[in-house]
TrEMBL record:
This is BTB/POZ domain-containing protein FBL11. It holds the Pfam family BTB. Residues 1-56 form the BTB domain. The lineage of its organism: Eukaryota, Viridiplantae, Streptophyta, Embryophyta, Tracheophyta. It comes from the Eukaryota.
Length: 914
């Protein structure tokens, strides 16, 4: 290679010293360089000002060459490139390359590398967490990244999870305990433990790393909540609000604070102010006073607080998840959200009961770019079509007339919302839906499941106005004939659809439907449903559970795009279902549980394809053959007509199966159950009802299915023992044992806590040998439970409740027929000691004083549903040898159901036992 001596001397300190110094090479015309050829050529290109393409793969080589040969211009180019990359959002550098760059920078004492590596990793931390190289990040880089002001995470929980993963990968048995502890303490103390979801913290109480901090975090949560309940003028007084300051940077795209009962509107506002103001006691007191009476009706028109410093703007944020934050009053919060997140597209505020229709309309007005809103709440258990109501009364919690009148005075431009979920909102009435439909001109997806106050007429009016709808979920509502007529009527403002050319209704809404869920809607007649499905050829998800659907309706459906089909608890026959399956090879989710006619032979049908025309072949095997040949299933639920032979036929379709449910009427058999893991190796959920099972089958399922997360054994027959559950499985999250383990003792339960240590849902029924000592086993073994059901379990509550209150994250609690030791104040105690509790089911037989106190609206915390079953004595007889003795039996009489929503308190007495 020829090069000008002068150029080399000017641009390279290496050649300057070599050619101008006392080295022998200084007088030579030719010198030899031992270096990587490609790198050296790039160094020479830089010396001669040729353009260079710097990448994360060649960065180290170029920088090393630049340093060795002393080419300052190339060092500057490398630094400039890395500075530009480190300031970007997105995986411009692979994580393993970044780690190599960090190590190279430390080895060569390059001052700019540590800061730029930490900055890049901080801004892209969510991406780095998903990399297989995350555990290889050096401790010094990780700690610098976490302390960096640009650290960008969706939630504090995700940061904590990442730290746990890193510690598991980097804490070795060979290292000293003191060094391990030092590493973990330094990392864990960077977590803002007061911003962690309660269920997450409770589940980590048994963690090797986090047990002490988990207790501190729980204490912190209760401290903040007690400050509010005491009615302090300054709810932020004497509390370090930095621990409750949400991490927000200019690179944040998602904010997730879901599951944090400690989060209030006050702390949200402080997070949106410059950090210097979070310690301003005067400002904090002013905010506290402003929110003191936030629960009152006059707070609905909340404005920006006077004298408040400028709100910070985070324009990159597109999604905010505030679900399960009971202390967060969204009416005033929207004012600040609209200012801080001007690009907001998605708001999730599920399970916050104080969200009213006026709040939704205000959100549409204040956040004009929003297109997805999720306001899901628990649906009322009193579905008019499913229960027999003995009496019912309603009490208004807040004035509703003035509130709804104010809705129509809002000047709201047409909304950009395309997806709206109002599931379970029993307070949504026809007037609310009318106004929503008038401004939601872009709506494509609507979920009204469980909105029991809506009439068929109001739903039909919505369907006529929102002409872009393609997904409609209206299960357990009054959806009926009027709504179907609206779907099937021509809509000239929508335009025609190519999929329906040649048909009468070229532009009906039904013609463009992709999702239709109408389970439990029994106000639909056969002719209307037949007309609807004959037009809905584009359907991908269809739910007809518990409807009066008949075979002709399924035959009328000629679509071929179904992915999900639920016809559970209907009277559909095998041939009709096989007809659907044969035409829809993309079917992945099928629920045919409770369909009694699937086990019967059928007569021929004139509309049936020739392959199914012979009446002699009308059997369930044809259905399974069609499924096995055409589909690749991921979730199935069968009952009547399903057998072990069916599973063998279905085997080609089940290799990717993730969930299987076999209910009443189905029979797999012992041999088939043993083969289940071989046929379906990817199973995550196994639910067996009324099956014959054994220890060997259960052991094989638990031991062989490495991805198993859900196991339900209910009302099964066979000889099983504790041997079935003596295998450790860390993945199991939900366990339901109903009437299958009557032999279970406290010692057996202790074995379950050791082997299934990560459960979040537990349901035990009929374990009559358990006593009150099992409470401590449950609370210590599974402190992170979010659902607990104990029914007919010996004397678990005979001496009252003590240790169960340590399961602070429980959201759903069922305690029935476990001993008459529950105090009269139990409902109030549970609501205050379990701040996430939303649903509770009790039995009056367990009340030590014969009754339970009912909390008022302000004292119920997060609670929205209380079910109390009542029994009545009935004299019966029992055979004992040759003697017949009589005794008083307790049989169900009625159930008292109490439901709170944002506007009403409804008290209902029904016949059924819910």
């Amino acid at each position: 290679m020829q090069a000008h001596r002068k150029r080399l001397i000017e641009r390279s300190s290496y050649f300057r010293g070599l050619l101008c110094g006392s080295f022998s090479e200084s007088c030579l015309d030719c010198i030899s360089i031992q270096w990587n050829l490609e790198t050296f050529i790039n160094v020479m290109k830089s010396i001669y000002s040729f353009p260079l393409d710097i990448t994360s793969q060649n960065f180290i080589h170029l920088l090393e060459g630049a340093l060795y040969f002393g080419v300052e211009s190339l060092v500057l180019k490398c630094r400039t490139w890395f500075s530009l990359i480190s300031s970007s959002k997105g995986p411009a550098v692979l994580l393993d390359d970044l780690i190599n760059i960090w190590n190279f920078g430390l080895e060569h004492a390059i001052d700019f590398v540590p800061e730029l590596c930490a900055s890049y990793l901080a801004r892209n931390f969510m991406w780095a967490m998903s990399s297989t190289f995350f555990g290889d990040i050096p401790y010094s880089l990780l700690i610098l990244c976490i302390k960096h002001p640009h650290l960008t995470v969706d939630s504090e929980m995700r940061l904590a999870d990442a730290i746990f993963v890193w510690l598991e990968n980097n804490t070795e048995q060979s290292e000293s305990l003191s060094k391990n502890k030092e590493l973990s303490v330094d990392l864990l103390k960077q977590i803002r433990i007061s911003l962690l979801p309660l269920w997450f913290v409770a589940g980590k109480k048994n963690s090797d790393y986090f047990s002490e901090l988990a207790d501190v975090s729980i204490d912190s949560t209760f401290k903040v909540m007690k400050i509010r309940t005491k009615g302090s003028i300054d709810p932020l007084e004497d509390y370090d609000s930095n621990h409750l300051r949400i991490r927000l940077t200019e690179f944040s795209e998602k904010v997730d604070v879901s599951g944090c009962p400690q989060l209030s509107s006050e702390f949200l506002i402080l997070s949106l102010l410059p950090s210097s103001y979070s310690t301003d006691s005067t400002l904090r007191k002013s905010i506290g006073k402003s929110f003191l009476n936030i629960g009152r009706a006059d707070r609905d028109q909340c404005q920006i607080l006077p004298g408040l410093p400028p709100i910070l703007s985070f324009e990159a944020v597109q999604e905010v998840d505030m679900s399960k934050c009971p202390r967060l009053h969204l009416e005033p919060a929207i004012e600040y959200i609209s200012l801080s997140f001007p690009s907001l597209r998605t708001l999730k505020a599920a399970y916050i009961s104080n969200f009213k229709t006026s709040t939704l309309l205000k959100l549409m007005h204040k956040c004009p770019q929003i297109n997805e809103v999720d306001l899901t709440v628990d649906a009322s258990p009193v579905i008019p079509t499913q229960v027999s109501v003995l009496s019912s009364s309603s009490l208004a919690i807040v004035p509703t007339i003035s509130n709804r009148s104010s809705i129509f005075r809002l000047e709201t431009t047409p909304s950009t919302i395309t997806k709206l979920t109002l599931q379970g909102r029993s307070n949504i009435c026809d007037m609310d839906l009318q106004y929503i439909s008038e401004i939601s001109v872009s709506l494509q997806y609507i979920n009204l499941n469980g909105c029991i106050s809506l009439t068929d007429l109001s739903i039909s009016n919505l369907l006529r106005r929102c002409v872009k709808l393609n997904s409609i979920l209206v299960c357990d509502t009054s959806f009926g004939v009027d709504s179907i007529l609206a779907l099937c009527s021509a809509n000239f403002s929508f335009g025609s659809s190519a999929a329906c050319l040649g048909k009468q209704h070229l532009d009906s809404l039904a013609c463009n439907l992709q999702t239709l869920h109408m389970g439990g809607c029994r106000g639909v007649d056969e002719s209307s449903l037949l007309k609807l499905l004959s037009q809905a050829k584009q359907l991908q998800s269809l739910c007809l559970r518990e409807t009066h659907v008949v075979d002709d309706v399924l035959y009328s459906f000629s679509g071929s795009s179904l992915v999900t089909l639920d016809i559970s608890n209907t009277m559909i026959c095998v041939a009709a279902l096989a007809h659907i399956v044969q035409r829809n090879p993309d079917l992945k989710y099928l629920n045919a549980r409770g369909c009694r006619r699937l086990s019967q032979l059928e007569t021929s049908h004139t509309g049936l394809d020739s392959s199914f025309s012979s009446s002699s072949s009308r059997s369930c095997n044809q259905l399974h053959i069609a499924l096995g040949n055409a589909c690749r299933l991921e979730e199935v639920a069968f009952g009547w007509g399903f057998s072990g032979f069916s599973l063998v036929i279905l085997e080609p379709a089940l290799m990717s199966l993730r969930s299987i449910t076999v209910g009443l009427g189905g029979s797999l058999g012992e041999d088939v159950l043993r083969c289940l893991p071989m046929v379906c190796p990817m199973l995550e959920s196994v639910n067996l009802y009324f099956q014959v099972i054994s220890d060997a089958a259960i052991v094989n399922i638990i031991e062989s299915l490495k991805h198993l997360q859900v196991l339900a054994l209910c009302y099964c027959f066979g000889d099983i023992s504790i041997l079935s559950f003596k295998f450790v499985t860390k993945n199991l999250r939900k366990l339901k044992l109903e009437r299958v383990t009557p032999w279970m003792t406290n010692n057996d339960l202790g074995i379950l806590t050791q082997n299934f240590s990560n459960l979040i849902e537990l349901s035990l029924t009929g374990c009559k040998l358990l006593n009150s000592d099992c409470q401590q086993l449950i609370s210590h073994g599974w402190p992170g439970l979010i659902s607990l059901s104990l029914e007919d379990c010996g004397e678990v509550t005979a001496n009252g409740i003590s240790f169960l209150f340590d399961c602070v994250a429980i959201e759903d609690l069922v305690l029935r027929h476990n001993g008459p030791g529950l105090q009269k104040s139990f409902v109030l105690d549970a609501a205050s000691k379990m701040p996430m509790l939303r649903r509770i089911s009790l039995d009056m037989c367990d009340a030590s004083e014969g009754d339970f106190d009912i909390p008022d609206y302000m004292d119920r915390f997060f609670l929205n549903t209380v079910k109390i079953a009542r029994c009545r004595p009935q004299r019966g007889s029992v055979d004992v040898g040759l003697l017949k003795t009589s005794r008083r039996l307790l049989v169900h009489k009625e159930t008292l159901v109490l439901v709170w929503n944002s506007e009403n308190f409804v008290r209902t007495v029904i016949k059924e036992r819910l």
